[in-house]
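Example (one chain per record):
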Amino acid sequence: MTIASVISHLDATLHPEYQEKYDNAGFLLGDPEQECRGALVALDVTDDVIEEALSLGVNLIVSHHPMIFGGIKRITPDNALGRHIFKLIKNDIAVYAAHTNLDNLKEGVNGILAQVLGLTDCHILRQLEGQPSTEVGAGMVGLLPYPLPTQAFLEQVKICLNLPLLRTSDFATPSVSRVAICGGAGSFLIDDAIAQQADIYLTGDMKYHDFQRAEGRITLVDIGHFESEQFSKQLFYSIISKKFSNFACFISERGRSFINYI
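Predicted structure:
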């Protein structure tokens, strides 16, 4: 089984054509014709994750965040990206990323986050521009099985996502039944969540002025970028392991958030 075969399946399942114009998803680095000795799935390609791949003896890393995003003007070992590229090429490790295309798939980042939070009757919050299917787009909105007091729901969110704390606006409603979500940085969907009459909107990377936009119409909650996308690893694992049984797929245990809470 070559890496090209695995990439072909990932492309067919994860649809790189659904990525945003600014993104750089897909096959990023390596020789696609080499035999695949196993895969490691992670959120980010870091020094720790590369060392983990080496210790496991795998030669394919599948990540959510693309390690190569903007233009590269030089590749030298005096910066993190340069070190990563050197080490990966030297050890014949290939890299594939599924980023905003995984965000835009209904069964992707937001789909699995909705499952973890127990949401039902879910649909896309904002349809992907130029895409006729209502099953493709950013964010998601769904219903709780029964209304919960806002504070009780947020305590449940902390447990489900293993969060030490949350950042919230003032509570717009005493209870919650309609929930909007967006894994990663989702402040661009605040107005969409309000238009969809969500009681609460959960996402990451909220700024001070983002919270001001609530204006009593919705409860805004920052659940963290890493924390809201952490389950993408399970998605990758399931996609690969169900299709290919002739090599091992591992979920990274060394990936972590770059933000600490003290």
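Caption: The radius of gyration is 19 Å.
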